[in-house]
Write a structure and sequence with these properties.
- Helices cover 34% and strands 21% of the residues.
- The chain is built from 17 helices and 20 strands.
- Helix 6 crosses helix 11 and helix 16 (428-438) packs across helix 17.
- The longest helix is centred in the middle third of the chain and has 16 residues, at 303-318.
- The N and C termini lie far apart (57 Å).
């Protein structure tokens, strides 16, 4: 049974860092496919290590004017717009940004040439000289990653937070190479990023939950599940895999892992980890159960955030951070931008929340369960072949008015349009205006799209910030 390193976090991390060695990268010329955040991060990391880079993106060059100016100084070959047949000439491997499918013609061309396909997190892990904490799951990744990073930081350890959360893992690895302090790389990883890993090796990993998502990307649910399970692919008996004991799909991963298994649960006592009973959170370590805090003390709303808290606690305890430090961080944690984020309260008492990070049906369900007051819901975006009708009863129970945006409008209207008053909007500004007109004192206006943002916005952050701007304009703030 694992002995938690109570009070020894600093020597423990020093020992871990001595074990974490940069591995030789076997390629001298690489194609980076995708010039968004992760692709640019990969490019900078590769150039820092004097590896030749060809950067490719199908979007027109006019969208990359500032990047192109930087590329001239970086000695990077760049191809923007329609992909030419010879773009892979001389390249020994291809690094994929997470938004690019393995079925893309250029990726298939690379496979036909037997070129290795490398995800950005896989690439960065070659150069990581600090222990990695990897957080995956269908929902809750961003909140859990942010909370975990804050807990590590507040314990006096340098936490570099990155991945699918806003900063490329490559950027985090590059910055940590210059850090003399004790460092932990806390990274949010998606199924897209895990698809093409081979040696990515987190010391601590968590799978928060697994529900149906990204069926526009995967042929079936099995493929999606297996992508999530890859987070533990290279873990050994010296590592830790944290699993949700209330989720059978998550727990099944224990059968495929060589790591030490720690768990968390909202419904039952666990063997090692954290659980909820009688309105309190308990830690169970080495067979000993100790109370941690009351559930009602957690400042961020929703049962799903209790689960996120449990996961963060277990991961940080595996790193050796003491419970008193974790408690202090938790009680002051205010959540993350775009995840059931309080925006404004109108003079008439209507409260606006930004949940743009809710890009699937399961996230929307959790958001609706967080409110007892009537909800004016703004939903829609790019459809991900979601089963909207799964929420029919909850929509009928919690939603007062439904306002639809984006490409998925007809699909969502077909599922929910007959259940509640439904309106359509062409823009976010129009949606917020309709919501303001439909709301009364005590109502909640909630942006929780249940869809991705790519039909109208750069990403969910762009969508969320647009919503907040429209709300403040509507309220005259």
């Amino acid at each position: 049974m694992y002995q938690f390193p109570f009070g020894f976090q600093f020597p423990f991390l020093q020992e871990l860092q001595q074990m974490t060695k940069i591995r030789p990268f076997p390629y001298s010329r690489v194609c980076v496919f995708g010039a968004a955040r992760s692709g640019v991060g990969a490019m900078h990391l590769l150039r820092h290590h004097n590896i030749e880079v060809t950067l490719v993106d199908e979007r027109p060059a006019m969208e990359f004017r500032s990047l192109i100016r930087r590329l001239r100084r970086s000695y990077v070959t760049a191809h923007f717009g329609p992909i030419k047949e010879d773009v892979l000439r001389g390249c020994q491997a291809i690094v994929l940004s997470p938004g690019i499918s393995l079925t893309h013609p250029l990726v298939q061309q690379a496979m036909d040439r037997d070129l290795p396909i490398i995800s950005e997190v896989e690439l960065a892990s070659y150069f990581a000289c600090a222990p990695i904490v990897a957080i995956t799951g269908t929902n809750g990744k961003t909140t859990t990653t942010t909370l975990t990073g804050q807990m590590v930081t507040d314990a006096g350890i340098n936490a570099v937070v990155s991945g699918n959360i806003g900063r490329a893992f490559s950027d985090a690895v590059l910055s940590s190479q210059d850090e003399s302090r004790r460092t932990v790389l806390v990274t949010e990883v998606s199924s897209f990023q895990l698809e093409s890993i081979e040696e990515f090796h987190p010391h601590v990993a968590v799978i928060l939950n697994i529900t149906r998502d990204h069926m526009d990307r995967y042929a079936n649910m099995r493929d999606y599940i297996e992508a999530k399970y890859r987070v533990t692919l290279n873990q050994t008996g010296d590592d830790f895999l944290v699993l949700n004991a209330d989720d059978p799909l998550t727990m099944k991963c224990a059968e495929e892992s060589s790591a030490q298994i720690l768990t968390f649960s909202m419904t039952k006592e666990v063997e090692e980890g954290a659980f909820v009973a009688d309105g309190r959170i308990y830690l169970k370590e080495d067979g000993k159960v100790t109370p941690f805090c009351n559930v009602e003390d957690i400042p961020i709303p929703g049962a799903h955030n209790v689960q996120n808290t449990l996961a963060a606690l277990v991961m940080c305890r595996a790193l050796g951070i003491n419970a008193d430090s974790l408690r202090k961080t938790l009680l002051k944690f205010k959540g993350v931008e775009h995840r059931i984020e309080f925006v404004e309260r109108s003079k008439t008492g209507v409260v606006y929340y930004n949940d743009s990070k809710a890009t699937n049906v399961d996230s929307l369900e959790k958001a609706l369960l967080s409110f007892k007051k009537p909800v004016i819901l703004i939903a829609g975006g790019k459809d991900k072949q979601s089963a909207y009708d799964r929420l029919n009863s909850l929509i009928k129970e919690r939603v007062k008015t439904l306002i639809l945006l984006g490409e998925a409008k007809p699909l969502i209207k077909k599922a929910w349009g007959s259940l509640v008053e439904t309106k359509e909007a062409a823009t976010m500004e129009e949606a917020v205006k309709i919501a303001a007109g439909a709301s009364r004192t005590g109502d909640v206006v909630l942006l929780s799209p249940a869809c991705s943002s790519f039909d109208m916005y750069k990403d969910y952050e762009d969508r969320g910030r647009t919503f907040k701007r429209c709300v403040r304009n509507q309220l005259g703030l």
